Amino acid sequence: MSKNLVIVESPAKAKTIQKYLGKDFEVKSSFGHIRDLPKKGMGIDLATFSPDYEVSADKKKLVTELKAAVKKAEMVWLASDEDREGEAIAWHLADELKLKPENRKRIVFHEITKNAILKAIENPRDIDQNLVNAQQARRVLDRIVGFEMSPVLWKKVKPGLSAGRVQSVAVRLIVEREKEIREFVPKASFKLDGIFLNNTEQEIAAKLKKDFEKEEEAEKFLEKAKTTEFKVLNVETRPGTRSASAPFTTSTLQQEASSRLGYNVTNTMRLAQRLYEEGYITYMRTDSVNLSQEAIEGAKKQITSEYGAEYSSPRNYTTKSASAQEAHEAIRPTDFAVKSIGDAQLNRLYQLIYRRTLASQMANAKIEKTVIEIGNASLPQHFEAQGEVIIFDGFLKAYGIVKTEDDDEDNNEKLLPKVKVGEILSYKKITASEKFTRPSARYTEAGLVKKLEELGIGRPSTYAPTIQTIQNREYVDKRELESQTREVIKMSLTKDKIKKEVLEEKFGGDKNKFVPTDIGEVVNDFLTDNFKEILDYGFTARVEESFDEIANGDQKWKEMMTNFYSKFHPRIEDVEENADRATGDRLLGVDPKTGKNVHARIGRFGAMIQIGETEDEEKPIFASLMAGQNIATISLAEALELFKLPFELNEFEGQPVSVGVGRFGPYVKWGETFISIPKGEDPLSVSQARAEEIIGEKKKADAPIASYKGEPVTKGSGRFGPFIKYKDLFINVPKRYNFENLSQSDIDELIDAKLEKEANRYIQQWEKEKISIENGRWGPFVKFGKAMFKIPKKKDETKYEAEELKEVSLDEVKKWITDQDKNAFAEKKKPAAKKTAAKKTTAVKKTAAKKK
Q: Which EC numbers characterise this protein's activity in its record (predicted)?
């Protein structure tokens, strides 16, 4: 029996730590938080702000196991992560497992190495209640904001929406950037580039130091340049240095992994978590660039042995952010002697961290920058060529590259040939190109993280979940935006002749950048109009500062909550009572055929166009917007085009054919089959021949690939990946199978497994009532329609066995359902004829009750 029980957050970490501790220690994992606020209901006493924590259903078995292990141990070591979340996990464990102060110790470490673990065991402490309270304050405040603001959105915008303190601010950033892009008016100017030759025919590329606003000015310059003798007017050589960037924080790692490796924020954090748990890097949630003395010494040793003493330049960095916790370390390798690791995907991220940390401890690169001025006294402006030579590569040696991440790719700096002042040069070609100014770029994931960090919104642990949430809520997406085309003028001077041509240039296209959805814009506008303070960047940053003060013991968390809620709740009530409904309604104009107004707005199924008013005798007609169209930008002409859909075509193989657009985009309908029209194809341009082609492709794709017990088997790809279909069963095909070349034995195996699973799925089923008792991942449950319900315990407080559930009557199951949802079997009321009147009556009653 082990005298010591160590509880960590993850099984991977437990496995690594177990290797370093002797047989007197047993290491177990809590798999993150063992308890939290309840999923249903707010779970907070709003009079005292006391949270009502509960052990989640999927953790009850684990908690029972941990309690049993605690009874056997003399000392329990709580070894969750070193941040506020980790401290809260330790506190919840201590409380739920009833650990007494004399039988528990709290240990923290920045890295999972033998030295770090043993050092932590030698230097235990107790749970830091200030850190716990800071985490509780964040959790409670965010729960209150979400639970009170979201129902307002359900009433005023659309059911099923959600709001959150950090997520709503992140959406606001993306919406405001999109509006800025729409309102941007590009300005044209002419930029001149020249290629000059010295007496040995070596090329020197240079740029004119000034742009011209008008075409005539650029053409006049080229005319003058025809007969100009170009000379080297000045050659300036000056020494310079380049210094390495600081080691990684969570934010800078996410940004660099995005730009260099193409990883999204969630993927980066998942891989970094694995690197940390397997002992390769220090803790990956940090806002500090600080390195321990041990790390600085380790880097120095590696640099000296690999590159030489002249490359070593030990230093420590300080964080610019006032809220950064300097006690923490930057993200770095735990052992600089480990240059690479076996797992290819993990190794790519590890290499990024390894090189960045090593480079931060290396000497500056020494460069020699050369600037050559080319022109003539008779010309109003001169050309300038820039180049540089690396005299000493310094930290660049670690990167194996010449450019750092801060370099501009278009800076035209390169090695230049040697020239003297007064030397005559001939021009090979001088080009004047019309260039348009560009609006600010849309946010990438990395760019959004950087902006949130700059504004002081969120903390290292919040960036990835925030970005994931706003995409899951469908407030923003990364849809591809098609380019537009415009004409640009290009003039070239070669051999004393000016050639002018008009070219086509694509602009405005984008991919893998955040774009707000229609519903995202409507929700953002409603929240910024009605909850200015919550959506204010400064307010959100001040809340983060308050959490920091609580963590430092300078503020009491419940006092902070009382102060916040006393202003927040009255605003909720006011908006709920008085704010207008938000639909993003935009009047586009009048339909020339009917003389009725045409609106673009949010409807029940998303963005749509409406002709006519809801209060008209004749009902309005509707059409869905197509992918790429937007309420804020669609024109009247584009909107009216949508009403040409659906349209009928001739029958094909005895079945009617039509073209339309629905919730999932444009389609060809053949009989009862809906076939998606390929992305980017205009449904209005689909002819009879094209429709038949699309149907033919679908028939080919749906053709049976095999048979099972005499029945055809087809295959396809859906939202959950590749599948095969047998009768009414859709069977997912795991990655271990070659989907393109499934053998008959593969198909038999997949269908057999699915049929066996389906046979074991139902314990009892009442199809007519849409009620069933099913086997689930965590045990049996009741399903009614799409809703799931728990099976209560028997009178003797024991659980039902599967055999007993086979004998339970339908009436008993119905009682279980109504005990959990009183309105489950209530008849749905038909909507009242006069909705508006009914709402007003309710509102009056509410107000009266309040005054009373």
A: 5.6.2.1
- CB atoms near residue 467 (< 10 Å): 24
> Which distant-in-sequence residues (6+ apart) come within 8 Å of 72 by Cβ?
1, 2, 5
Length reported for the chain:
852
Strands (E), 524-681: 586-590, 597-603, 606-611, 621-624, 647-652, 655-662, 665-670, 673-676
Q: Distance between CA atoms of 247 and 286, rounded to whole angstroms?
A: 11
What's the predicted TM-score (pTM) here? 0.76
Q: Which residues are catalytic?
A: 283
CATH 3.30.470.20 corresponds to the domain 4-127:
no
Report residue 278: phi and psi, to 5°. -90, 5
Architecture per CATH, 250-363: Orthogonal Bundle (1.10)
Could you state, in order of their start, the residue ranges of all structural domains in the chain?
4-127, 188-243+367-437+476-511, 250-363, 586-644, 762-820
The answer to whether 515 and 178 are in contact (CB under 8 A) is yes
Token match 């009502």: residue?
Answer: 52
d(CA 280, CA 288): 19
Number of H helices, E strands in the chain: 23, 34
Give the integer Cα–Cα distance in Å for 132 and 48. 17
Give CA–CA dist 52/74, Å, rounded: 30
Could you read off the pLDDT of 168-209 as tens digits, one per residue?
Answer: 999 999 999 999 999 999 999 999 999 999 988 899 999 999
Inter-residue contact 513 to 479 (CB < 8 Å): no
Specify the DSSP class assigned to residue 437: -
Residue 41 CA: distances (Å) to CA of 60, 786, 797:
20, 20, 25
> Quick one: 188-243+367-437+476-511 is in which CATH superfamily?
Topoisomerase I, domain 3 (2.70.20.10)
- CA-to-CA distance for 835 and 312, rounded, in angstroms? 76
pLDDT tens-place string over residues 268-312 = 999 998 998 888 999 888 888 989 888 999 999 999 999 999 999
Q: Is 768 helix (H, G, I), strand (E, B) or coil?
A: coil
